[in-house]
Design goal:
heterodimer; A: about 775 residues; mainly alpha; Four Helix Bundle (Hemerythrin (Met), subunit A); two-stranded antiparallel ribbon; 33 helices; 2 strands; B: about 140 residues
Chain lengths: ~775, ~140
């Protein structure tokens, strides 16, 4: 499992090379990876569909209870199969769709890395690992949405998606930390069995709200729905992938995943059902009003996400079955339709439904599968979308409360959904031939047709034989969402009942709406004006505020005067250290000067003398030299107390620092006395405070012991477990290697910072 | 930048290889005796800086052959890579792995991910110090 997820990142790293070598067929070659992963995940199917859940563990940071553990159960397997399966079609599709694009190699890198992050997210059992993958999907999707980075809109809306989802991610981080505290474990598999404890916990409400904020932003629930259609700035394969089975469903996944431990309360039901239902209706309403091909599909994705949220909120067995069936149905038809949208754009140059019409004869195969997928979107018998919709309506009618409002919104959504399906499935293909920007000469290539064909056909196969989907995985998935086995089943024909009546009614009403589409759009034109005051306005306002605050704090704190930076840092440090010492009641030890040797006194004298010279001198070079001498004397102290390594390092660093200072000195203007006496007294005061604080701190370590010393451990363990006699080095590169890694990162960043600062200034001057 | 000092220039020529060799020596012995990647890296960087002072920037860059930023990046990559093998043996991230074997002429040789990590540190130190130094020295001109 670990290798499966790692392989996506490894292949991502070599993807540009593969692309260069294989040229035109790179899509098929790289598509082998998701295909192999799909087969690998299929191998879990027998065990999982018989109700097992498998936990695989790799230790990571055992000291912090962080491990790389994976949980394979119905829910995660359903997602993993969708991600890898649709991923295969996306990669092969993109190989043709973006053929000749100069950044195609880069595209493979990001899409494969995204796929790996997404798989990690749905399979992770450890909360920290899950969060890391969650953020990785945000970052990689940012790169994907902004793929056409020369387009200002693409950059802007990629950033918008990033801010909304990462902002939610921050809330989620706080939420999962609380969840781990409440559930008593970082492992999902344990937390899910601790539902009662979590629901009774005092932190339940805050942690629920924070986690939901994370899920709602990611899954574009109202009022965060605006980023999703904007993300259509991405190339079509990205939209097809991000908005069918992945990225935007991550939030839904999270809610479904946590249902056994968080669900079942009133607040869970009310929040999810209401937000979900409103999102569902808003999505389909806006989809009906739009004319852009991808925009209609994007808004109908918002509708689907709302439906899923609502169903998870309702939480009855029927609702959860409906949610999982709908999830599968939506992934299939939406993946297919987005790919069809790409074909329309690629072959006919059409990005708007108004530019299309009568393309049936020019693109016969595309048209056939598009219509099939659209029928599933509209929930027409005998497609799988129908099975899912019937179950959804049944669940809504059975909802324990809020029944009226949920049912109303569901019926309206069903009607508008049919109209939207008609826009997608009828408008481009039938009627009079409309002149498209490009005249299609032939149908789309195989690589681009494979996805829509297979996904749309699966919608039909699962519709005719719902048992396949049901026994295969949907049941197991619903069971893991419920936290208990389910005994419902999917079927095409439920007999004559209310859901069927609603379906039939919505077919007729939706058809009428489609017939009157033009008039309806005109009648709804006022929404555009209203939308200017919508949540997106709030987003832009917030971003402006953010920029304003950072400008303000830059003016105040980072005004370019080094002395102020130093003052702020020193005063803050002294203040915080002093406060902490006060808090813990650290006492000051007594200094015993009796055993001071003559040579030690001599070193001390040199130290004090260099220090005084450095402070009092009026020559800059003299100051640097005095600081150097100070440093070398400190090195001498280290050597005296047999810390050879530290001594050597100190000497070397001191040497290089002096050289560096000398290099910089050349660039400084002449020595001027700019500060007044008062200022200098203030600075001296600050310096004394800091120095005094450090002195007191060191004195306090003489006899205060808040924790047992760990030196003995290092001394004992250095040879047996570190295989080295130089304890300092063993600590640096083995026992504390993670710290060292952090330090060299800082070092590298500092070097790059200096480089950038000086280089860019030099370029500015030119 | 050129100090125009014949003594420094001649000394720089001879000291550079010696110091570099010494830095590698420090790096390799670091696990048992004083030394290690950080110290070795500083010595190597100091050697190049000395050369820079005795000659000029062009010759310093030439003697370095590669851009110090590449050295920096390679070092970071090595350090990160060294953390991974432990995971494949089912141990925590960053667990050191050791391979011991005897080779003719050399006697017993101990190789480890720790060494890879130390080489990474060595390269990062050289890369950062030289990036800063060379940039500053170039800005001079």
């Amino acid at each position: 499992m670990l290798y499966a997820i790692l392989s996506t990142f490894l292949v991502a790293a070599i993807a540009p090379t593969v692309h260069r070598v294989t040229g035109r067929s790179s899509g098929w070659v790289l598509g082998l990876l998701p295909a192999a992963l799909f087969v690998y995940f299929l191998s879990f199917l027998p065990a999982v569909s018989s109700g097992e859940s498998i936990v695989l563990v790799w230790p990571w940071l055992p000291g912090l209870d962080i491990q790389l553990s994976f949980l394979v159960d119905g829910l995660s397997l359903l997602f993993a199969l969708l991600i890898s399966g649709i991923g295969f079609f996306i990669v092969t599709y993109a190989g043709r769709y973006l053929e000749g694009h100069r950044d195609l190699g880069r595209f493979y890198v990001i899409i494969l890395a995204f796929m790996g992050s997404m798989l990690g997210l749905v399979l992770a059992d450890n909360l920290v690992a899950m969060f890391v993958f969650w953020e990785l999907t945000s970052i990689t999707s940012y790169l994907l949405i902004g793929y056409n980075h020369e387009n200002a809109d693409a950059r802007k809306y990629a950033l918008q998606g990033l801010f909304v989802t990462v902002g939610g991610g921050l809330a989620l981080l706080a939420g999962i930390i609380m969840l781990a505290m409440a559930g008593g474990s970082w492992e999902l598999s344990e937390i899910l069995n601790n539902g009662d404890v979590v629901r009774e916990h005092a932190l339940y409400l805050p942690l629920l709200l924070l986690i939901l904020l994370g899920a709602f932003t990611k899954s574009a629930q109202v009022p965060f729905h605006f980023w999703l259609p904007r993300a259509m700035a991405a190339p079509t394969p990205v939209s097809a992938y991000l908005h069918s089975a992945t990225m935007v469903k991550a939030g839904v996944y999270l809610m479904a995943r946590l249902n056994p431990s968080l669900g079942g309360t009133d607040i869970w039901f009310t929040t999810l059902a209401l937000f979900g239902a409103v999102t569902m209706f808003t999505g389909v309403f806006l989809a009906f009003r739009s004319t852009g091909v991808k925009k209609v599909l994007a808004y109908s994705t918002v509708m689907a996400l709302g439906t899923l949220t609502m169903l998870i909120g309702i939480g009855t067995e029927t609702a959860l079955m409906a949610a999982m069936a709908f999830l599968l149905a939506h992934s299939l038809y939406k993946g297919a339709l987005f790919m069809v949208a790409g074909i329309l754009d690629h072959e006919a140059g059409a990005k708007d439904f108004l530019q299309t019409g009568g393309l049936r004869s020019a693109l016969p195969v595309t048209a056939a599968f598009a219509i099939l997928a659209a029928l599933s979107l509209g929930g027409v018998i005998p497609l799988f979308g129908f099975v899912a919709k019937e179950l959804m309506l049944e669940a809504v009618l059975e909802a324990p409360s809020l029944g009226g409002i949920l049912a109303l919104l569901a019926v309206l959504t069903a009607i508008l959904g049919v109209a939207v399906a008609a826009i997608v499935g009828i408008r481009p293909w039938f009627g009079a031939r409309v002149e498209t920007p490009k005249t299609p000469h032939h149908d789309a290539p195989v690589a681009m047709l494979a996805g829509p064909a297979v996904l749309a056909s699966l919608g039909l196969i699962f519709g005719l034989g719902p048992g396949l989907a049901d026994q295969g995985l949907v049941n197991a998935a619903a069971a893991s969402v419920q936290g208990a086995p389910v005994d419902g089943y999917l079927s095409l024909w439920h007999g004559i009942n209310w859901p069927l009546a609603i379906s039939a009614f919505s077919l007729v009403a939706g058809g009428v709406l489609y017939w009157r589409w033009e008039q309806a759009r005109r009648a709804l034109a006022w929404v555009d004006r209203a939308a200017e005051y919508g949540p997106e306005k709030g987003y832009f306002k917030m971003m402006d505020g953010l920029v304003w605050i950072s400008e303000w704090q830059t003016r105040v704190l980072q005004n370019g005067y080094l002395r102020y930076y130093v003052i702020v840092i020193v005063v803050m440090t002294a203040g915080l250290v002093g406060f902490t010492a006060q808090l813990f009641g650290v006492g000051v030890g007594s200094l015993n000067l009796e055993r001071l040797e003559v040579h030690e006194m001599a070193i001390l004298a040199i130290l004090v003398a260099s220090m005084l010279y450095a402070v009092l001198t009026r020559s800059r070079l003299g100051g640097v030299a005095a600081l150097g001498s100070l440093g070398f004397t400190v090195a001498l102290v280290y050597v005296l107390y047999s810390a050879a390594d530290v001594g050597i390092t100190q000497v070397l660093v001191e040497t290089l620092t002096v050289i560096l200072l000398v290099l910089v000195l050349f660039r400084l203007p002449g020595f001027l006395n700019l500060s007044s006496t008062a200022l200098r007294i203030r600075d001296a005061g600050i310096a004394l405070v800091m120095g005094g604080m450090i002195t007191l701190l060191i004195l306090s370590t003489l006899d205060a012991r808040l924790f047992p010393s760990i030196s003995q451990y290092f001394i004992d363990e250095s040879v047996p477990s570190g295989y080295g006699r130089n304890i300092v080095n063993v600590v640096l590169v083995d026992f504390r290697a993670l710290d060292t890694l952090g330090e060299i990162f800082v070092l590298a960043l500092a070097a790059i910072g200096v480089y950038a600062m000086i280089r860019f200034r030099a370029e500015d001057r030119r | 930048m050129n100090m125009h000092s014949l003594i420094l220039r001649t000394a720089g020529h001879f000291l550079l290889p010696l110091l570099l060799l010494f830095s590698v020596f420090l790096l390799l012995r670091g696990h048992d005796e004083p030394g290690g990647g950080f110290i070795g890296g500083l010595v190597a960087a100091a050697a190049i800086v000395l050369y820079l002072f005795s000659m000029d920037i062009q010759s310093a860059r030439k003697v370095l052959r590669v851009d110090p930023r590449d050295v920096l990046g390679t070092g970071m990559v090595l350090a990160v890579i060294s953390a991974i093998p432990g995971v494949f043996r089912g141990q925590p991230f960053f667990t050191a792995q050791w391979w011991e074997f005897t080779a003719p002429l050399f006697g017993e040789i101990k190789l480890s991910t720790v060494l890879i990590f130390d080489i990474g540190v060595y390269l990062v130190v050289i890369g950062s110090v030289l990036t800063i130094m060379l940039t500053l020295a170039e800005a001079e001109e």
